[in-house]
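Entry 14. Ran structure prediction on the chain below.
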Amino acid sequence: MTHSWPSVLAQLNIPNIIGDGFSALAFGPLIDRLKQAEADEDEDIQLVCRILACAAILHFHPDSEKTPYGSPTDNVRNRLFDRGQMTAEASTVFSAVAEHVEHSSLQARANDLLWVFAKDHAAGQRAVQHYLDVANQAKDSEEWVRDIDALVRAANLSLSLGRGAVERATVTAALEKHAQDPRLGTTWAAARLMEMLLERGAGEPVTYSVIATQYAQAAQDAQHWHLAHHYWIIASKWHSRADNTAARNAARIDAAEMRVADGETALQGGGKKLYAASWIETAIRELRGIPGTKERVRALRLQLIDLQADSVEEFGTISVPLGEEHFRNVLELARKQVKADDPTDAVIKLGRVATEQSVGALRKAAEEELSAPSLRSLFSTKYVDGMGRMKASTGTSDEARIDELMRQRQTLTHQTFAFPFLYEARTALLDEHIIHRDHLMPLLDGNPFIPAGHSYAILLGLEAGLRGDFITAASLLTPKFETLLRHILEHSDVITTSLAADGVQDSIELNRLLREDEFLEPLRRWLGEDFVFELQGLLVSRYGYNFRNDLAHGLVPDSLAQRIGELIWHAALRIVCLPIPPNASKVEETLTTPQNS
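Output, structure tokens:
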């Protein structure tokens, strides 16, 4: 088909359709015009409208030098492309539009697409000039801030073309022209331009440090704390370029104080203490290492401790609607599991119950969640101890994230299965039997997994747990896990002490025993992979309860000790009741739970 592009484009009158700019907003009017062309059976108009509509919905990232329109996989369904390459029809239409349509925004975009996807160098050069035209036309109007994307794209595009001089002069001129505009002090526009100058080593440092300080102060006066923080940081970078260390540190201090102001303003407005604490904590991190801030950091630390302690009361609960049938099944299974004529046998049966979910199932669910995009993945998670202090945050590597998600599901299993099961099993056992110490002694006497001299404390802990005093049980039993696991490892001829050069031998502590492969492998052979994973979450994992470490440092409040102490008690009982076949099937697999469904 032979196209007379000047007449086709004149007939279409694109500027009248899309208005002053070219963006995703142009999609609707172009589709309306496409429908009209289909009714008129005008194939030329249809082609142009279809191509331009497809271009309008490309995600435009002006700050990205390499992928301003996303990766090839992002555009796999866009009809502009065929197997990652721009189609001949699209290239023809963009070339015609770039040549024959007097519309700076559209010409810039058409030439830009020809450069990015067809590697037309001349088109890329034309795109730079058209983008600069858009910015220059807009900077004398009310739309300059909105159209800063054009200037940013011109800068990045000219770099990829090897034309830095025009970009540098234009960015500098645009910023200087608007340096006194008070509106820019409360927008992110100048921040973007300044960051570009800093990245390229452009701009006069003293001049721009003054401008950045003015913007920071304007945003601060307007209580736009995030924006003010950003400009203070930019000001500190300009001071660094000017070798003014004192001014740089002062700007960094001002930036940190914006974090404090953010938290305090939230509190004054009735906001949560947890939110305020997070900003105080951020301010402390930013102040560290700045000379002369030691006393300020100390004051903020005291404020943070008070806020964290008070914030614990703000934590809510998440309800999991499992239904009555699920819990009826759990309770029925618990009663059956401990049914025995002899009290000692009943306790042993409870000690042979594995309440955790399998590691394989947890990992599979975590990997599926990690691979599936969700709104939740956009936010980080903070884990706090009983005093409201952060003990961990969202993992950065995939493996750390998988471990985090596995621990979250492990905790959910405790809520939906372990806690109700153990409560009902213990209650049924006590309803059926009157348990004395004499009934527990056979579990301890001659037990090869309990080292000499430790039986009595374990006995007292197990007894306390049976009567529901899990604070006492946890206090007595938690320190014993290191001894019990070390004793188990010694049965496998694993050395559990270190030998220093001077001959001093130290026992290897629990964190290493439950984290390092040389200890984990033999423990898994004795206890099973799933139970070892359970012990990690209970005792030493920051994504789990980290109970042993928090208890040792006095960070566990009574309410948490009573709650988690039930799991600690049962874990100790399970070790006392060894041997448990490592690959024994889990009792919860007989139920239909959300995790297994």
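The first strand starts at residue 81 and ends at 82. Will compare against last week's run tomorrow.
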